Structure prediction request, 320 residues.
Amino acid sequence: MADWDLKKLRILRTLHELGTVTATAEALHMTPSAVSQQLTGLAKALGVTLLEAHGRRVRLTDAAQLVLRHAEAVFAQLERADAELLGYLQGEAGQVRVGAFSTAIPALVVPAVQELRRSHPGLSVAVREAEAEAAYELLAEGSVDLALSLAAHAPTPRDPKFSRVALLADPLDVALPAGHPLAAEPGLRLADLAGEPWIFGSSGPWSQITTTACENAGFVPEQAHAAADWSAIWAMVAAGMGVALVPRMAMAGGVGAGRGVRERSDGVALRVLHADQPRRHVIAAARRGSEGAPGLARVLAALRQAAAAQPPGEETVQPS
Prediction:
């Protein structure tokens, strides 16, 4: 029987993900020569060729791809074993580390933590703010146990390393200056705002979400101003500088209260786009096999409860 060395298999998986021996060595805090020696030893133990030259780089052989397919199943089974052992040893106690993007923390994570403090006081949750790419890096390296992100910026459901759970389809409402001619327009559609100056991030998830929603409505938005902070966007809308899509979760989840959005509601009309309601999809992900850990399952249940409790938006919020 071949010698399936888990340490060496993890090195092979990291090489597959990062593409070079140098990057693999840096990620695993090893020297490139040590990485090469470990993979040479794995190839000898398994009796197959794992790497082949490809220009100045190396690439995995078909045999290596076959090894990795089985290795992923082994890693997932080990995660399940860890989950069962954790349940046996800790029951309802322990700690779950959650990485989440900024608007998800007040809207979903904080309510979930509050509920868990009441229902499962022995279970603690450590929260770390991280946007999608960083959250998955933390999850893959074991620095967090659960990652919350937007589905459009997460690994695909086919990724063997992660299990995904859908939490929320978060509607996007449009914020207009209160005196705007379309602020009280019945049946307002996104396409009605095609000629307006728009405010959204210069790059990253929110830029893509805004441009995609507008393109689906048949136009490319003219970016008049770039901002990613909701209080900054809200202030510019109130000043009549443009219009913006606003995730309902950011408003209902307390980002407004924490950064001045609700206090600055004077001067802004927030409209629900009933006819063509754009949405962003929020998911939670865990390392495959670990989702059965009792603490992690409790946190996921609390997050689902918080997502279900998100209030519906109002048709129009006018200045008081």
Observations:
- Confidence is low (pLDDT under 50) at residues 253-264, 313-320.
